Amino acid sequence: MKSTITAVRARQVWDSRGRPTVEADVTLAGGAMGRALAPAGASRGAHEAIDLRDGGPRFGGMGVDRAVAAVNDEIARLLIGRDVRDQAGLDEAMAAADATPNLARFGANATVAVSLAALHAAAAAEGAPLWAWLAQGRKARIPLPEIQIFGGGAHAGRRTDVQDFMIMTPRAATVREAFEITAEVFRAAGQLMADTGRLAGAADEGGWWPVFDSNEQALGDLTAAIERAGYRPGEDVFISLDVAANELDRGDGRYRLGLDGSEFSTDEMVERVAAWVRRYPILSIEDPVSQDDLAGFAAATAAYGERVQLIGDDILVTNADRVRRAAEANAGNAVLVKVNQAGTVTRAKAALDAAKALNWGAIVSARSGETEDVSIAHLATGWDAGQIKVGSFARSERMAKWNELLRIEEAMGADAVFAGVSAFAPSVTAGLK
Ligand code: PGA
Ligand code: ZN
After folding, report:
1. Fewer beta carbons within 10 Å, N or C terminal of the chain?
2. Is residue 136 part of a domain?
């Protein structure tokens, strides 16, 4: 059969931080091939599937020889002869053979590369673009992007405590228009920083490296950049934050905002972010509390979750059970979907489906360590996630994904529907209309 897997091959390649990562090829009897590369996080949640590294002195311990060997040896033997269209079967076979709950033996960097490569091969065998293969004729909106303007936290020497200062353009008509607005705001923000003597290079995801005196000053400057670009903050362009509060958690139930020189209890942390929500045009907030603080996440949701999208990243780690548990606790209204946090396409899709069943928002996301792989542009569209997060509007590992969305929008032609204001949980969308 043309969709039978005949070869699975991995190699070490390099990511956007110059660190080793895993690339996998899956080849089929009919000659079709799929290829995918594993991304890597820096502000990782403790409950993620394991990113397997060799340790030792080479490459700062970041080697992937063991993960590459797992693919070329055990995983290849496991998958050769199987039908590539049985994605769930392939993914479960890898998880079962790994035999740890978090893919610690093969490494999620091994399994995610193979899982995505198999998905690409299945689409290639049908001669279909990946987004169309995933959609199978169902609704597939072009996702609303959230795009980083300033990068901080673990991605920029902790120069700000908040990790991502991003913008969203839900009232754009197309993703093409969303990018044109973003390009103007990104440029205006750079000019503003140059004018104020605060331009100091690029953060890990390509956003302006922020030299600010406080987290709030960054919010003020982002609002000013939106205006300088000729747009109305809170009308045309909104702010989205990833607080990545895990990185601020001192481990004793208190949060430290180094730039602001303050320490907070969970309640005070929730109130600090609530004050930002009152003062700035903030539409979306990710990880306002740390990864095990479900009560804090619920308190944040009670405080501003009616009007604001509240995304769980480190607290949900692309895990369907954790999504359902959070919903039961009235905590959050959106999930960040990172395929490598789950370790396989099937598990990531399960987390997305759990969110959709709850009427939550879903954001398919890149990692801070990325590559030229553009799979997530197709997943976000083909799965009809509604939103996508890739990093900034600079550097080709980011732009490759944005540019792929332009190609997808063009290929859909008159059928293309941009998620826009419909991208959110119902109460957030209602507030925008
Ligand atoms: P990471 O950060 O890829 O470094 O974990 C991205 C995020 O927190 O969303
Ligand atoms: Zn995050």
Report:
1. C
2. no
Please state, in angstroms and rounded to a whole number, the distance separating the CA atoms of residues 108 and 72. Answer: 15
Interhelix angle 294-304/266-279, rounded to 10 degrees, is 30
Q: Is residue 132 part of a domain?
A: no
Task: Indicate if ligand 1 lies below 6 Å from the C-beta of 313.
Answer: yes
Q: Which atom of ligand 1 is nearest to the CA of 41?
A: 3
Where residue 153 sits, what CATH number does that domain have? 3.20.20.120
- Give the pLDDT confidence of 26-52 residue by residue, as tens digits: 999 999 999 999 999 998 999 999 999
Answer for the pair 21, 290: CB distance below 8 angstroms, yes or no: no
- Give the N- to C-terminal CA distance of the chain in Å, as an integer: 51
Half-sphere exposure of 239 (CA within 13 A, CB side): 27
- 430 φ, ψ to 5°? -60, -40
pLDDT at 224: 98
Q: Is the CB of 43 under 6 A from ligand 1?
A: yes
Residues 101 and 209 in one domain: no
Domain boundary residue among 97, 127, 157? 127
The pTM for the full model equals 0.98
Does residue 367's CB lie within 6 angstroms of at least one atom of ligand 1?
yes
Q: Rg (Cα) of the chain, in Å, rounded?
A: 21
Q: ∠ at Cα 281 (203, 351), nearest 5°?
A: 65
Beta-carbon contacts of residue 413 (< 8 Å; ≥ 6 apart): none
Distance 43 CA to ligand 1 centre (A): 5
Residue whose C-alpha is closest to residue 132's, from 423, 372, 385, 412: 412
Please list, in sequence order, all residues whose beta carbon lies within 8 angstroms of the beta carbon of residue 249, skipping any fewer than 6 positions away.
Answer: 255, 290, 291, 293
Please list the alpha-helical segments (H only) found in 206-329. Answer: 215-228, 266-279, 294-304, 320-328
> Measured between alpha carbons, how far is 104 from 392 in angstroms, rounded to an integer?
31
Cβ–Cβ < 8 Å for 6, 77: no
Per-residue model confidence as pLDDT tens digits over 133-183: 999 999 999 999 999 999 999 888 888 999 999 999 999 999 999 999 999
CA-CA distance, 370 to 373, in Å (whole number)? 8
Nearest atom in ligand 1 to the alpha carbon of residue 154 is: 4
Q: What is the CATH number of the domain that holds 48?
A: 3.30.390.10
| Number of structural domains in the chain | 2
CA–CA separation, 428 vs 311, rounded Å?
Answer: 12
